[in-house]
Amino acid sequence: PTARWHASPLPARTIWEASRAGRAVTNDLQWLPEATLMVRIDCQARAHAIGVRSCALLDACHAGHALGTALDLAMSTAPSTPMDADLLHLIAIGAFTDTRPSSKTRTHHD
Fold first, then answer.
1. Sheet harboring 44-50: ordered strands across?
2. Global pTM?
3. Between vectors from CA 95 to CA 92 and to CA 97, what angle results, nearest 5°?
4. pLDDT 10s per residue in the chain (110 long)?
5. d(CA 70, CA 61)
6. DSSP state, 81?
């Protein structure tokens, strides 16, 4: 599995998804900041909308912080709201996965 994330001041994910699907970006596009998690699992790439706090959590984990410390650092970006929904969303979309090859690519020896 591979994961990359990015917070953009532009609707980068929306533009990328439209381009990838062969759709034109229309004039009604809302030019709002977007944060995106790109994951590739079993050779399939997917883009997921995430929040800025999720980016902060991923940055802290990538920097080598233990999960508890990473959660504390991420929560400092918006201390008045709990982080549980962000963490559950990241787990559900594959941000934290087993780094071993999937059973589709794993070789078994008897």
1. 2-8, 34-41, 44-50
2. 0.75
3. 85
4. 588 999 999 999 999 899 989 999 988 999 999 999 999 888 888 889 998 899 999 999 999 999 999 999 999 987 777 888 999 999 999 898 755 454 544 333 33
5. 6
6. S
DSSP string computed for the chain = -EEEEEEESS-HHHHHHHHHHTPPPPTT-----EEEEEEEETTEEEEEEE-HHHHHHHHHHHTT--HHHHHHHHHTTSTTS-SHHHHHHHHHTTSS---SPPTTT-----
Q: Token pair for residue 24?
A: 């034109």
